[in-house]
UniProtKB/TrEMBL annotation:
GO cellular component, one term: plasma membrane
TM region(s), chain numbering: 118-139, 151-174, 194-215
Pfam family, one: SUR7
Name under which the protein is recorded: Uncharacterized protein
InterPro entries per the UniProt record, alphabetical: SUR7/Rim9-like_fungi
Amino acid sequence: MAPPKRSHYFALLFALFALVLLIFANLGITNTSSFLPKIFIVQASQTKTNQSIRYGFYRSCIFKGDSDQPDTCNDSNLLYTFDVDQLAKINNLNLDSSDVIKQAVQQYSQGVLNAQKATVLVLPSAILAFIGMIIAMMMRRMRKNNMLPTLGALSGLLGAVCSGMAIGFAVVLYRSAFEQISAKVDGLTYHWGPAVYIVGAACGCQVITFIWFIASCFARLRIGKEHDHTYEYYERHSFSSVSMHQHRY
């Protein structure tokens, strides 16, 4: 365990790690001119057409072959949902004549797929990581009691809950949806992307941040008790010395 005065440094370090990871997760698929298209939650691939769809937290894009540059993307939206037309396109289906995908998606549209909007929790998770980092920086010079580490612990805990729920909802809904769709559409497969592991790691960092803030709180309490015992001993010793001095004379 780190010394009491060093606990906030470790809280700062892990809050910073969480923030960096969550920034990358939030920006995944949003910028097509960099490496960000490689950061996605899940990729649905159609082996017959050699096309795929990569789903991020705010939009999805169609890719052709092994290219990492998207062919087409839908508009970025905080609360976006499945694009049926994209699924139809990579499967080379006409929804007017063959509505296999449309029926499968609509079956979930009022339930599982509607929960896709909950993945937006990755955004407040990043904000909470930033707040935790700022609090840890403030503790060095501004800490007078346990108020700051308590707020830092709350930000770490709530951030971990948000990131955990975001990735949990994503895994459950995409798995259930694509299992259903792939059973009806030949050649459709899916696999998880880096964003799942990035957000999972960020969630772990936020849990560790929470632990270090709590450790700082208990360290402060322990130091306070030791100070009280020392002061009490000093008072008793001083009183005894004075009494003996008076008795002698």
